[in-house]
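quick one before i forget lol
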Amino acid sequence: MTYCAAVMLDAGIVFASDSRTNAGVDNIATFRKMKIFEQPGDRVLVILCSGNLAVTQATLNYLDQHIRRNAVPNLMSVPSMYDVAELLGKALREIRERDGPYLQQNNVDSSASFILGGQIAGEGPKLFLMYSEGNLNQ
């Protein structure tokens, strides 16, 4: 089980996540479940993930590759935190659509969820909960 939490305070947002993951009873390892995307002076985005590790990591890699390729839109080009949340939801849906059937063939749960928070210049800090279906709650 993964533990992730974020708390919005007057001074900013505090993020916490564990790093434990397992692939069965006797295969326990560690893996970072917090990813930070930053463009100094413009934005800081923090994404915490839980659920199927393959799905969460593929989703984060998908977003990272869009930044590296200067795809438009990407996390560094959109004007608002809401737009960032929409891109995260879209990426999650695409990964689950691509990989979900293969995981399901092996009775593997492909659900994943994210906590997204941060700030883009000109906006106040924002915090979102992203459900496995790619929809969000602010």
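fyi Helices lie at 53-68, 81-105.
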